[in-house]
Amino acid sequence: MSIANIKRIVKTITRFTVNKKIKMNPLKSSQSGFSLVEILVALTLLGIAGTFVAGKIFDSLLDGQIQSTRIQMNAFKARLQEFRRKCGYYPTTDQGLESLISKPTSGRECTNYPPNGFIEGDELPQDPWNSDYVYSSDGKKFDIMSYGPDQEEGGEGADQDIFLSKKSKSRNE
Prior knowledge:
Blueprint (H helix, E strand, L loop, with lengths): L2 H22 L11 H52 L46 E4 L4 E5 L15 E2 L5 H4 L1
Antiparallel strand pairs: 1-2, 2-3
């Protein structure tokens, strides 16, 4: 093989690989894609939609917590009615809901108090905001309340107190 033939072969191979590279990697001006502005607009719209969805989720969470509070209060009501059937009176405010776990040591005595109490366990359940329920009674009638999400007495809207009785019309009906 002569040097002229080798040069011709190298030239052909070089031309072939250069053309192959151009075909495999077309010019950037013909490529399509998203501009930075388009990407930012899409991210902004996703952020707005995410805020709306998150707000609805948090509203549902609050409604669930309020419903859970009402269910727990009604469970207390059933235990208190059982207490009254056995003892002849509701526990007083001083005796509190703790009298459902252990026999009251003050006030009127309950001679038919069951050995295991009216609620299983050693602690009373708390409301969904990890606060104790507020119990008030004169021995004849009773009421139970939760301070709600703000954990303070009073409040309006979503922060209003939750009562077993119908004191707060807008949220407890």
